[in-house]
Amino acid sequence: MKILIVNTSDIQGGAARAAYRLHQSLLAQNINSQMLVQSKSSDDFTVLAPTSKIAKGINKLRPTLDGLLVKCYKNKSHTLFSPAWVGLSSVVDRINEINPDVVHLHWICEGMMTIEAIAKIKVPIVWSLHDMWAFTGGCHYDEHCEGYKQHCGNCKVLVSNKENDLSRRIHSRKSKVFDGIEKLTIIGLSRWMADCAESSQLFGNKQIVNLPNAIDTDIFSPFDKSQARALLNLPIDKKLILFGAMGATSDPRKGFLELSVSLSLLKRDDVELVVFGSSQPKKPQGFSHKVHYLGHLHDDVTLRVLYNAADVMVVPSLQENLSNAIMESLACGTPVIGFDVGGNNDMVEHKKNGYLARAGNEQDLAKGIEWVLNAENYVQLCANARDKVVSTFDSRLVAKQYIELYKQVFQ
Q1: What is the spatial distance between Cα 166 and Cα 79, in angstroms, rounded to a whole number?
Q2: Which of 2, 174, 226, 259 has the fewest beta carbons closer than 10 A?
Q3: How far apart are CA 315 and CA 338, in angstroms?
Q4: Cβ neighbour number for residue 89 with a 10 Å cutoff
Q5: Domain range list for the chain
Q6: Burial of 411 (0-12, 13-18, 19+ CB in 10 A)
Q7: Do domains 2-214+394-410 and 225-392 have the same CATH topology?
Q8: Model pLDDT, residue 12
Q9: 63-115 residue pLDDT tens
Q10: Rounded distance, CA 314 to CA 318, Å?
Q11: CA 1 remoteness from chain centre
Q12: Is residue 105 a contact partner of residue 128, using CB atoms and an 8 Å limit?
């Protein structure tokens, strides 16, 4: 069986890393898998990307070009919005030239292909939803507006007061295209995302399944905490709270503000915060606790050391699908605290391997931090964290589930 995984990039960003991990997992199961991307950062020969200087140059411009229509909405929120209107892409021609048995789409924005181009793929399509974009009028997270259940318009993300705005037009384009694709299977990576897709106007009549991302639990595994802290030059005698995400301090959805409020409520002086995915800002964030900014980490080995250095990981996202950070932390045996939103409860079991706070409630988030740090059964929490991932998300287990799905859609 020949599988082609399609994503905008191979290892840059959460969706890319998840897609690449699945690709590696399939190869480990002796599946003929290739990955096709717009922008390649690895040196993996199984990842295909444009090689000419002209093509690479054009691809670097695509994200900017795709965002031009959005600039008309001057008051737009910080949530990512992708029109997917930039043409002149050879991606679909390349897909059909490779002629796989199944095309597995992942995150295909930043001008990688137009919505209309998806219908030109000649083989069965499986599409993993890393966010909500596929079934909305362009936003990647809907900020709880649920316009996707009808036809979008008056877009909350665009801060639009017009029915026939850009979101309505994009939604209409998607509706026309998706209705014409017979062999399209949708994967909600979390139960929440699968439910959202099922309730959407665009995918309500499609086959929707819930399959998670895969993680190599041999790579992400427990490591001596003292050694981990020594390697990262972090204090041995403090309780370390870990927080990290792409755009950790700049994307409101990631909950940096809520985390700040929660930390201010902690009544203890033995706590320090460790932030990765974001460099130290020019202006102080106003934390009462010392903060260690580690910047962007690009390899799994360093991430493994970091998760093991922490006493607890906090993921305060206000909307979240299936967080790589949560899965990675749990795999390393570090309990996780987050809001009970999205796919968080697929991984975090309340007071068993972490703590699920009431959505958006900073007081409850602070309570969760205190609960984990003070837990008499902390060692058992760590063991439970590891067990959850090994039993549910291990790459060998998950890869076999995807292979079964590919066989079904290829019949």
Answers
A1: 15
A2: 226
A3: 5
A4: 18
A5: 2-214+394-410, 225-392
A6: exposed
A7: yes
A8: 86
A9: 888 888 898 899 999 899 999 988 766 889 999 999 999 999 999 999 899 99
A10: 12
A11: 27
A12: yes
300 Cβ contact partners less than 8 Å away, ≥ 6 residues apart? 216, 219, 220
Return the residue matching tokens 């493994």: 304
Q: What is the CA radius of gyration of the chain?
A: 21
Residue 139 phi/psi, 5° resolution?
-80, 150
Q: Pairing state of beta strands 47-48 and 354-357?
A: unpaired
Is residue 285 a contact partner of residue 306, using CB atoms and an 8 Å limit? no
Report the C-alpha gap between 276 and 328 in whole angstroms: 14
Residues forming a β-bridge with 125: 103, 184
Q: How far is CA 192 from CA 51, 129, 167, 348, in A?
A: 38, 11, 22, 14
DSSP letters along 251-264, please?
-GGG-HHHHHHHHH
Helices (H) and strands (E) in the chain, counts: 14, 13
Contact 78, 156 (CB under 8 A): no
Alpha helices in 266-410 (DSSP H): 300-309, 324-331, 344-347, 362-374, 378-392, 395-410
Other Cβ atoms less than 10 A from the Cβ of 288: the count is 12
| Residues sharing a CB contact under 8 Å with residue 129, sequence separation 6 or more, in sequence order | 135, 186, 187, 188, 189, 193, 197, 321
Tell me the C-alpha distance between 175 and 354, whole Å. 40
- pLDDT tens for each residue of 39-59: 898 889 999 988 777 777 777
Closest CA to 344 of 135, 189, 136, 144: 189
Q: Which residue type occupies 131?
A: D
Whether this prediction's pTM lies above 0.85 is answered by: yes
Taken in order 238, 382, 12, 302, the sign of the CA dihedral is positive
| C-alpha angle 198-201-205 in degrees, rounded to nearest 5 | 55
Among 43, 35, 37, residue whose Cα is nearest residue 8 = 37
Q: How far apart are CA 253 and CA 246, in angstroms?
A: 11
Q: Report, at the CATH architecture level, how domain 225-392 is classified.
A: 3-Layer(aba) Sandwich (3.40)
Query: 126: closest CA among 178, 180, 185, 183?
Result: 185
| The one-letter amino acid at 388 | K
Among candidate residues 170, 140, 129, the one with its CA nearest the CA of residue 152: 170
**CA pair distance 374, 359, nearest whole angstrom:** 22
- For residue 247, what pLDDT band results from cuts at 50, 70 and 90? low
**Which stretches within 243-334 are classed as H helix?**
256-264, 300-309, 324-331
Which CATH class for the 2-214+394-410 domain?
A: alpha beta
